[in-house]
Amino acid sequence: MITRRSAGMGIALAALVACALPGVARQAEHARTLPPPVRDEPAGSTTSETAVFAAGCFWGVQGVFQHVKGVTSAVSGYAGGDKRTAKYEDVGTGRTGHAESVQVTYDPRVITYGRLLQVLFSVAHDPTQLDRQGPDVGPQYRSAIFPNGAEQATVAKAYIDQLMQSRVFPSPIVTRIEPGASFYAAEPYHQDFLTRHPDHPYIVFNDLPKLKDLQKIFPDLYRAQPVLVEGAGKGKK
User: Fold this and answer.
1) Which domain holds residue 73?
2) Would you name the residues annotated as active-site residues?
3) Number of structural domains the chain divides into
C-alpha cells in the first residue's frame, strides 16, 4: 500500500512524497466507460473557459487533464476554504474546508464542459468513495465540483443524476457540487508532479494507470504531449 505520506523522510521531502494517512488499505480505482452527458454547455463564441474539480490527490488528476485535447492549462491547487489556509500543510489536516483540486482551462470549441466531466468520472477518480480516493483519506480528498457559474452547476448536476439513474456504478455517487468557491494554486513543487516524477512509487502505483485508461477509453481526446505549468505561483484565480 503506497500513500503520499508513507515515506515520511523529513518535512521537505515528506511534502513531495506524502498526501494521506498511513496504514489505510487501498481500494482500487477502476476506470469505466461512461455515456456522454445528455445535457452540456451550449456552444458559444468564447475560446477559453475554466473548470475546477476535486478528485483526490491532485497529482494524478492534473496529470490526466494535462493529456486531454482542448485543455490549455491544468493547475493543482486548493478550493473550498479560505485563502489563509490554502497551504499544503494546513490542507493536509483536513480541517480547512479545502479539497485538493485542479483548475482546468479549456477551449470549448475543442472540448466541452460535459466531456471534461465524462473524463473526470470515467478515469480521473472513483466518485463513489466518500472523503477518500484510493489510499488517501480525509475531506481534503473528497469528490467535488466547483462550478464556474450556474450553467456548469446545472450540467454537473444533470450528469450526476444521469449516471445515478443508469446505475453505471455499483454504489451511489457522492460527488458534491460546491458553488462559489475560490481556487488557489498549490505550491510550485506540486505542479507537473506526474511528469517530473514518473518513477515515484505513488505515481507508478496510483496515477500512471489513469493515463493508460485515458488513452484506452478516450483515444479521440488523448494527447501524448502534456500541457505543463510553467512557474505557477500561488494566488487567487
Assistant:
1) 46-217
2) 57
3) 1
